[in-house]
Design goal:
The chain has eight helices and eight strands, in the order E-H-E-H-E-H-E-H-H-E-H-H-E-H-E-E. It is α/β, with parallel strands linked by helices. Strands 3-2-1-4-5-6-7-8 form an eight-stranded mixed beta sheet, with helices on both faces. Helix 8 links the parallel strand 6 and strand 7. The longest helix is centred in the last third of the chain and has 20 residues. The chain has one domain: NAD(P)-binding Rossmann-like Domain (Rossmann fold). Helix 1 packs across helix 8 and helix 4 crosses helix 7. It is globular.
């Protein structure tokens, strides 16, 4: 069985992914910024809580002290900005979203890579989105071509590139990004998309691909998502 860390795990896809992996007998740490919410979520699921704010270097580094081993890292924490026309974007908003969705992943990867390198089956799953696909974004007929969250879209495209680069740098690890699909999470207002359990099942499956699984890939419900 594996030791797993999931960031942003006190709700939504992260929470349900934790539930799935715990049910299969894995040791799952819920990395959460809010201590009370994180402890409550861990208690509900039978997991373990570690306080972890992906936007804070000291918080991320301190979280590593809780671990003696780590086999699977799921970078799930993410932010969605309010609908804003790209011509009206402020650099502060771009920095705010990238600080969690991109720089946060880099912080966590940098801190936890030494632990992952000690694992016999190290795996990283970066929760991305098909709206971060450049080819899909350029397709005028794509179902999400007019999706308004331009900063979120750009942050996921950047995350996809980092995923490829990490996979090339660490060939012994399975490092992939996954598109869980449009999902009824709190971040989406809980109004549109598939049930959270469907999305989390896919994330959990990619997390458990094993040493012979693909790496450096963008994976979705229908297989490989175009870059």
């Amino acid at each position: 069985m594996s030791t797993v860390l999931i960031t942003g795990a006190n709700r939504g896809i992260g929470y349900e992914t934790a539930r799935s992996l715990i049910a299969e007998g894995h040791t799952v740490w819920l990395g959460c910024r809010d201590k009370a919410r994180g402890e409550r979520a861990a208690s509900e699921l039978g997991g373990r809580f570690v306080q972890l704010d992906v936007t804070d270097d000291a918080s991320v580094q301190a979280a590593t002290a809780a671990f003696s081993q780590l086999d699977v890292l799921v970078n799930n924490a993410g932010l969605l900005e309010p609908s804003t026309h790209i011509g009206d974007l402020a650099s502060s908003l771009v920095n705010h979203i990238f600080n969690t969705n991109v720089f946060g992943v880099v912080r966590v990867m940098t801190a936890f890579l030494p632990l992952l390198e000690k694992s016999t089956h190290p795996t990283v799953v970066n929760v991305s989105s098909s709206i971060g696909s450049l080819s899909k974004a350029a397709d005028p007929h794509d179902e999400f071509t007019a999706y308004p969250q331009d900063v979120y879209r750009a942050s996921k495209a950047a995350l996809n590139m980092f995923t490829v680069q990490y996979a090339k740098a660490y060939p012994a690890m399975r490092i992939n990004c996954v598109d869980p699909g449009l999902t009824k999470t709190d971040m989406m207002g809980g109004q549109v998309g598939q049930p959270v359990a469907v999305a989390s099942a896919m994330v959990a499956r990619i997390a458990l691909l094993g040493p012979n699984g693909p790496t450096g890939q963008f994976l979705g419900a229908d297989g490989v998502v175009p870059w």
